[in-house]
């Protein structure tokens, strides 16, 4: 961001509270650049767990269902909405798997385990699904998805699989 979203003047960098911030000298706007909240769901469906491949990802890369928290939603509502939008499943949150800082994308990810029900039908964002048993999931290699690896370590500890 180079220009103020309020008045259009050029932004300058200042140190505020020991952090670099973009500031508008004209109208005093400050770009705080706080992390964006994201929810992630490990969905259990008919005794298996669903992993998904987004259409934008390379072949062979799978992760959890995820999306942004929207205005006016609780994090639980957001994760269940994402499960409905991406998989067409109704859901029930069964466990929170933790909060994870994803610095590369300036996101805070809140991960849940969700029981899904209904007729599984992936939306247009997804190109492929993988359904794994609990044992298969506990051994699955998520490759360069480091945050997913961290979430899954919490899941394996929660279920005594570590």
Q: Could you characterize what this model shows?
A:
- By secondary structure, the chain is of the alpha+beta class.
- Helix content is 20%, strand content 40%.
- The strands form two sheets. Strands 4, 5, 6, 7, 8 and 9 form a six-stranded mixed β-sheet that branches. A three-stranded antiparallel β-sheet has the order 1-2-3, with no helix packed on it.
- The protein is elongated.
- The termini are far apart.
Notable characteristics:
single chain, 162 residues, alpha+beta, Nucleoside Triphosphate Pyrophosphohydrolase, 6-stranded mixed sheet, 3-stranded antiparallel sheet, 9 strands
Q: How do the helices and strands line up, and which of them pair or pack?
A:
Elements: E1 12-16, E2 19-23, E3 30-31, E4 36-45, E5 48-54, E6 65-68, H1 75-87, E7 90-102, E8 107-117, E9 126-132, H2 134-139, H3 146-158
Parallel strand pairs: 4-8
Antiparallel strand pairs: 1-2, 2-3, 4-5, 4-6, 5-9, 7-8
CATH class of the largest domain: Alpha Beta
Average pLDDT reading: 96
Largest sheet: 6 strands, mixed
Order of helices and strands: EEEEEEHEEEHH
Low-confidence stretches: none
Structural class: alpha+beta
What's the helical proportion of residues?
10-25%
What's the number of domains? 2
Oligomer: single chain
Per the CATH scheme, the topology name of the largest domain is Nucleoside Triphosphate Pyrophosphohydrolase
Just name the CATH architecture of the largest domain.
Answer: Alpha-Beta Complex
